[in-house]
Queue: 4 jobs
Job 1
Amino acid sequence: VAAMAAQGSSSGGQAQAGAGGCLVIICIEASESLVEPMCTTADLQQELVPYVLSQSLQNPAFLKLTKPERQMRVKNLTQKMLSGETGGVGEDEDGDIAPHRFWAHLRTKYGTRKGHLLQLLKLLEPSIRDKQVALLRFESEVDSPSMSLFVRASEPCSGVTAGVANAARRDFAPGSFSVGVLSEWLQDSFSGRRAPPLWSRFVLECRRAGAAGFSEVRALVVCTAAQSIDTTPDAIGLAAHAFHHESKVVPYISSVSFGPQCSERLAAMSELCAWTGGHSFNVNDPSSLQPAAEGLSSHLFSCQTQAKDFHERRLYYGQKQALGTCYLPLPRLVQSDATAAVPMSPSASAKTRSVADLLRSGLGNKFDGTVPSESMLMVLSETTVAMPRRWGRSLRCWREHRELRDVVFGEPGGLGLELD
């Protein structure tokens, strides 16, 4: 009952803040990699041996050992560091190095996804502070679903599960958003129960925003896990269909992914953002935070960005869908707009025809606009000749194929001025 009352009060607060305004939804993936150092395997190997040797040489007991004993001790310490930071809190009786000191050193030098996230939101705070903000903390599984994921994704059937879902959500009234409060909220999440997955709750938030009277929803999705099943192309495609058919307000989504990500997942998230009218960013080092924050501030969270600006990007993606060049089979979002509902004149419909259709109707012969010919592939795959010479050779092959005269070499045929 308390959870239902809290949920009702939250919906009531949204209703008071709605009435044609803008709601900002920030979805943060609270995975285990959020606090891991952002270093590659090569960086880890580069840091491990010098750190172990430097710390070992500072131990007087290590210097008294024989050479084979020193080698064995360094090997054991290296394995202990690679096993993670759960090997001990402090130094043991033999004076070995505690693993958590090494991992703290890596966090200090390379940073963490949580640190980059807080730095990004700190740069975005002036643009977000004056808006109604809803935070969603989500956590999925790696590679494949589990029983825990099914339980967390189900509708709450008790006060405990409803409390877990409410604990993974937080509202900020206009003018009250603070990165410090968000940092404490994220820190408390690691000591409690795991948060539910993203997309079903995201769609529910958009439905509530439409019922509360918000005219638009601008969302930022922060991805921290490289193999989360929430960011697979199939999951993103299902989420787009859910937004289109179940949500009263289709949000303008932009995304930020931290660390190396799979190219298929990045392409799927980029398509979802383009479909809704937003942008997608991938941040691997701190130098990329400032440009990403500037892009989000000027496009997603700026008061000067109006609905027509987002609609322009949606129309552009709709044109890509008409050409069949999209990566995901997403629904046609622009058809629900008023401009797409107006019947098109014959001249306007002729302008939207593809290049291949125009060539087929104009030339009156068969034209394949998707598969290149074998001769074209042979010319394009040539790598031993410089680009100008390759271009000249392709022109000469084309002239020979059309039986046109080559003025330079004096070959028989037409002069080559009639180009139908």
Note: The chain has a mean pLDDT of 75.
Job 2
Amino acid sequence: QTMLDGRKTLSSIVDSDWARNVVVRRKIVDSYLGPMSVGVRKAPFHIAADALVITPEKLPLIAASHTSHAVLGSSRAAVECVIWLLQHGVPPESVHWVIAEDMWFVSYESMQPDKYVNTAKIFWNSFADCKSLPELEFALEDAGIRYRVDSAHRPTAFHGVSVTKQEITQLRRISHNIVRKGRVSEVMVDRLVFGNEEEVLTGTGTLYIDCTEDWVSQAPSPVQIYDTNHITMQLVREIADNGPPCSCFSASMIGYLEAIYPTEESKKNLLATPMLPPRSVVEALRNELCSMKARPNIRANRAVANFLVLGRPGRLSSLRTADLRQLFKDRGDEDERRQVLANLDRLTQDSFAKLHPSPSASTDADADACQEGALEASPCASTEAEFDLSPQALGSGRSAGSLTLDNTPYNLDSASTLMRQFSGQSMASSAPFDFDELELLEQRQILRAGLAS
């Protein structure tokens, strides 16, 4: 709330008596989704007087006193609750998992540094070769980078939830006990009532674990991230990389752009396009398509390319330069890139149009327009005197942890140091990202680490 003298008033949604007046010196950094608190959230269904419904954090306290359990929702919290129950001796037939629709999961192992280059190559080849959306989905499953719980059901949802091989094996133990009746409208002592008036018996005394709180489904339409006096934190399309949406890395990039271009709102908005978190397979692929369209512009901006390649918690920061070269080489020349983009667009266009039939500010078409505008933007260079990433200002220092002269990935702390050096040498230049310079600095880091040890 803004007061007459320009000060802002902060108030609490938990304690109505709490309030503080603050002076905003530069900008307000706002939450995209608004306040989220388990303590004040209202369940999205009616709860009968004698039904016992808890939130996930209370499960370890009272699970042992019940012989039947029903996990509601398909979020990461729901996955963890199901696995926790099974690991603590609850028989699979005593666990009901209630979901609105089946969901594809990301293979955790496939996104690790030693597998990521191969995973990215599989994605690229699948985008290029597949003739239909189902063929693409099953190709990724056959390659071991997407999982589903039940092979008899083709998932339609995708929220970016990652699971390990051990976790998906545990989830499959209750595949016969998954309830697919849509969304729950009422929870009763011994049964669930759904929106279509269907009922499912769960047994007297069932403990219901409410995991339906899902930030993905609550997400409103994207808004411009940077304004003169305001920053609205959101997921950033440009850093989508075939894996789960990374809110931490999005926040890092938003802060990084604000630091190097503090007064250039248009430039920052061209480099950081907000995106809706994916709720379906098609939306996830459309986000990836837009990210792929933006990559040439990102690579042409040295400051941003340095950050994305070397900054934490980005997935590329743990790769050696040789792996990065291979990653970009696998994506082919410009003609091949256009063909891949065109095929992915064809595979997803009709399905996306059915999900979003009416144009709005959040449609993919507008997002594409933003990306096309970004491609025409000139390479950026920071000229702000107060922001100095040079080695002299930050200090080169010694690498934390150990590095060897073989081909194993280097320590992330070393990558962070390397980013400072490379960024410091590149910030004033408008030339595109240069692998040769990066490799030279990497070799220096390895040599320093070897001498230090």
Note: Confidence is low (pLDDT under 50) at residues 360-416, 422-430.
Job 3
Amino acid sequence: KAGSVWYGSRVPVLRGFETVFSWVITDPSVECTEHVDRTFSLKQHKSCAVKGGDGFAFVIHGDPNDSFALGGDGEHLGYGGIENSIAIEF
């Protein structure tokens, strides 16, 4: 999946800018499965894996699509393909 949240109006960045933001990452997607031991068919064990995302990015862009700009998902972190952009990946 890819999604975006953009500031409501253009911010001039040519002479520098400051920003502050915070985020909280909670409730990772955990997928657990039960497995039967091949040697002893009565014994079972549980195997769990976290299925989280690839990350997110703070992006500054000058894409013609303005606030509708959305890049690719997965390794692109939602900004890959956005024109005239620079990103800090988390």
Note: The mean pLDDT is 85.
Job 4
Amino acid sequence: GFEVMLHDWFLACPCRTDDPEEADFFFVPHYTACHLNVGTFSELESQALFESLVHSLRFFNRTGGHDHIFVWGSGMGADGPFRSWRRFIE
């Protein structure tokens, strides 16, 4: 799906850096559409997973999350699998 293709693109992109201090943004791969489509977890479980994930992202608080990119494929928006995302962006 789209989420996998975008992740592959960023992995091969010449703009990629392994030094987080040099990074302009952080792409956060998660494949939520894939997991929801095959029933790995529900949207409610997805919400809990994202909330725990955000707390574990080492550089998330550096800019209040403004430099972290989450992408949802399959036409779904963040208000489905990560409804509380606004609480985490400062």
Note: The chain has a mean pLDDT of 88.
